[in-house]
Amino acid sequence: MKKSVLSLIAGILCLALLFSTLTACGRNPDPLEDPSPPAEESPAAGDEAAVLPPLAPLLSATASFASYQEVPTAYTPQVPAYSVAPDLSNITNLSDFEFSPAAMRLLAENGFVVVPNDYYQEFFVVYETNLYEPVPGFITTDSMLHNYHLFFSHLLRVTERDHLVPELKALTSAMMTATESQAAALEGTDWHNAALRNLAFLAVAGRLLDPAMPVPEAVQPVVAEELALIAAHEGITISPMMNLGQQQSELDALQEDYSQYIPRGHYTTDDALKSYFQTMMWYGRMTFRLKNEDETRSALLLTLALSEEDKLTRWDRIYQPTSFFVGDSDDPNVIQFQELMYQIYGNQVTAAQFPGDAAKWEAFRKEAAKLQPPQINSIPIFDESLHPDRAAEITGFRFMGQRFTLDAAVFQRLIYREVGENSQGQRRMLPKALDIPAALGSQEAYQLLEAAGETDYAGYAENMTKLQTHFEQVPPQFWSGTLYQGWLYTLDALLTTPGEGYPAFMQNQAWTRKNLNTFLASWTELKHDTVLYAKQVYAQMGGGMEDKDDRGYVEPNPELYARLASLVSMTREGLDQRGLLNEQDGESLERLEALALSLKTMSEKLLENQLLTDEEYDLIRSYGGQLEHFWLEALRDEGVDHRSALSENPAALVTDVATDPGGQVLTEATGTIFEIYVVVPVDGNLRVARGGVFSHYEFPWPLNDRLTNEKWRHMVDTGETPPLASWTESYVAP
After folding, report:
1. Which residue range(s) make up the domain with 124?
2. Region of residue 256 (left: phi > 0; alpha: psi -120 to 50; beta: else)
3. What is the pTM for the complete model shown?
4. Buried-most residue among 288, 426, 682, 728 (CB within 10 A)?
5. Where is the signal peptide (predicted)?
6. pLDDT, tens digit, for every residue of 263-322?
7. Coil, strand or helix at 599
8. Could you give the C-alpha distances from 166 to 134, 169, 172, 265, in angstroms and in order?
9. Per the structure, how many domains does the chain have?
């Protein structure tokens, strides 16, 4: 690729990275930190995390994929006030249901109740049951968010399997050839060891992709060691490849968490995706640290090899689609390194020139040391008594670095060492999922964290306040750079507190907590779908029924449905522009967008106390069939063509979102679909409508046994799930 083209790419990425690692962009040394703190003040515990992303809306590196078009909403809430009789006597269809005394009490107190269910494995089953009984349906935000997860996961799988796997194999093969040539050219120099490290680095990737790939004799022992560690995936230890030829101490050698190579998420059901997962994890996690001269040599040699022929084009064909789904790399990569290489060595440099020019090498190292450190630490390091300068320990080149995400950045600033010890002398080694909605402004989430003692850590409250202040000020464009951010922005609509003019069931603390559960469960699906890329901190149509008035209701959240429609549109447009979307998936996304827009319109009408049309009530009745259609379409690439495959493809899933190097990971999971019963006003009368909502679980789990969907689903089936969060007791009853 010509230098001019590469410079253009570098310029786009420089403009694009919201939390950029490019010092050439002219940002503050830490773009997340408050500018110019008083020099005379010593920061209190947690002040290092007093970090604010830049407020100016910036283009995303993925802007060339698609734009995010906000769908407007227009309504004035004016549902007449109503109340549920303590004995439920003013509900017209109460006799259609059987409730426990505890459920009846919550139904009377809150106007709704969530009832656990061990048998509903997917949302569409709940709604099809409504049609067959028949009872009024209650369309939930949970069910629509789950729909998007199904398609996000499907589209990512198809993109990976059909496009990225072939590109990754071709790139790895080409890089192996180039690196072998470099090693031969550098034999007998002090750069030869760095070239051998790269040969081993790429040979490990090649073997993960193809177990029959020949490994150069010079690196066979170290490659075998690395592959054995990846296969055993037992935990944290020194990387033999990174320590090649250096004999560093345990304190100085790069430590790697090999438990990260356990395939999980949607990567467990397909051999090609399993090998892709492990290879991309390898490329995404291995850090050639700038503090280490030999590792920095390796990084420069990799950059040179990538810059030759069409290899950077292949690299970009992998990087750009994954950036559109998740986000940009959090670590320095080939773009920054190539810019420095050309600046110092010129654009005709060869590997053989590096050993003979010590002055240019020192100049390169000096400039590389100025590159922005990552915002998220995903490298196991020791505490400040042994590694006082964390930035120096974690800053380095990554071949295809894992991605910056806003939620991981929030986590980073709310755990040790950004926050100090609590009053019992304990360190906050793992975050809580509630940190995310709390940072986005949810008072209820913060109060729940406070009640659990999570805010007792030194610096936690100060860091949280600064995060909240920032997120209050960011414009909508801030959220629209990637599908990951767009999903978070959609979930943000769950954090508003409905007031006067909303249905009575929405005007209480229990509903606020129900919405928090929806937020956390959908966020869990997001983390599950992106477990490979996102950096962790160190996370029907039946008939024959009696004629019965079964007119239902829609959970009235116009903003959420509007944002979801915008997100679906952006997904379709972005993938289609890059030739990554087939016609059938495009049509399914169009239908999903249309459904979200219909629910937005229906929500606005309900909030303005307007009666829905017959067609809109029919949409509620047929909702289960529509969900089943989307479910079948989203699993088509997995060979699913009938609902009989439901038991092998339930909604329940699990993911880990943060790591305590002491031996645990924070695990988030969803289980069976629970029923929600809501007292809703229809045509002047109160009735109970039924829908489906997520169940959500959060718990620590051993690091060397990161859970897969298969293991978790067995736990769900056998009743071995941990307890629900205690705060759900305000609205969940057996």
Report:
1. 94-153+474-730
2. beta
3. 0.88
4. 288
5. 1-26
6. 999 999 899 999 999 999 999 999 999 889 999 999 999 999 999 888 999 999 999 999
7. helix
8. 50, 5, 10, 21
9. 1
Per-residue model confidence (pLDDT) at position 191: 97
CB 139 within 8 Å of CB 690: no
562-594 burial code (b ≥16 CB/10 A, e <16): bbbbbbbbbbbbbbbebebbeeebeebbeebbe
In a domain, 41, yes or no: no
Show the tokens assigned to 732.
């969940």
In DSSP notation, 470-521 reads HHHH--GGGG-SSHHHHHHHHHHGGGS---TTS-GGGSSHHHHHHHHHHHHH
The pLDDT value given to residue 234: 87
* 687 preceded by a cis bond (ω within 30 of 0): no
pLDDT (0 to 100) of residue 380: 60
What pLDDT is recorded for position 381?
A: 56
Cβ(183)–Cβ(199) below 8 Å: yes
The answer to the question of residue 456 being in a domain is no
Token digits of residue 487? 């999903």
Orientation of helix 558-577 relative to helix 483-492, angle to 10°: 170
CB 654 within 8 A of CB 266: no
Determine, yes or no, domain membership for 650.
yes
Instruction: Say if CB 395 and CB 379 are below 8 A apart.
Output: no
**Backbone CA torsion sign across 595, 598, 604, 610:** negative
pLDDT score at 608: 98
Euclidean distance between CA atoms 378 and 386, whole angstroms = 17
Classify residue 371 as left (phi > 0), alpha (psi -120 to 50) or beta.
beta
Of residues 97, 182, 55, the one with CA closest to residue 689: 97
Q: Are the C-beta atoms of 375 and 390 separated by less than 8 Å?
A: no
pLDDT value of position 20: 30
Q: 694, 146 in Cβ contact below 8 A?
A: yes
Is residue 386 exposed (0-12), middle (13-18) or buried (19+ Cβ within 10 Å)?
A: exposed
Structure tokens at 690: 């039924």
Alpha-carbon distance 335 to 327, whole Å?
Answer: 16
Residue numbers in the chain where pLDDT is lower than 50: 1-63, 539-545
Interatomic CA distance for residues 171 and 312, integer angstroms: 9
SS3 248: coil
Concatenated DSSP letters of 142-207? HHHHHHHHHHHHHHHHHHIIIIIHHHHHHHHHHHHHHHHHHHHHTTTSTTHHHHHHHHHHHHHHHH
Q: Would residue 265 be called left, alpha or beta, if left means φ above 0 and alpha means ψ between -120 and 50 degrees? A: left
Cis upstream peptide for 134 (omega within 30°): yes
User: Residue 384: how many CB atoms within 10 A of its CB?
Assistant: 11
How far apart are the C-alpha atoms of 369 and 391, rounded to whole Å? 11
